[in-house]
Amino acid sequence: MKTAISIPNETFEAAERLAKRIGMSRSELYATAVAEFMTRHRATGVRERLDAAYDIEDEAARLETVMAIIQSESVAQEDW
Question: Per the count of CB atoms within 10 A, which of 30, 53, 54, 70 is most buried?
Answer without folding.
Answer: 30
